[in-house]
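Much of our argument rests on the idea that a fold can be written as discrete symbols. This step matters because it turns folding into a mapping between discrete strings. The record that follows shows the chain in one-letter code together with its fold in token form.
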Amino acid sequence: QVQLVESGGGSVQSGGSLRLSCVPSESIFSFDNMGWYRQAPGEQRELVATLPRYGSTNYADSVKGRFTISRDYAKNTVHLQMNSLKPEDTAVYYCYAYRASALGTFWGQGTQVTVSS
């Protein structure tokens, strides 16, 4: 079973920055797509950013221009750089990894991001 370990969450004031990291137990080369979702209290889980193995990144409209997803092959890590954070970005952020051959999506345990005004 693939495991994803997230880190980098925390509490910041509005306008601040955080960088989330996601390290899978297998090579990031082996996944067709990786990215981040988030879920605020009482809300449905929403897609934040995707990073396909081939192709362009995609972002939710609400984070475009503020968040950047990237991968570090040497460290086998996917990052989510979050700048100009707003209180509405407060949520638990989940890393995912999708592998078409397994017809499955793997999830991290989630990391809390809290932005105060």
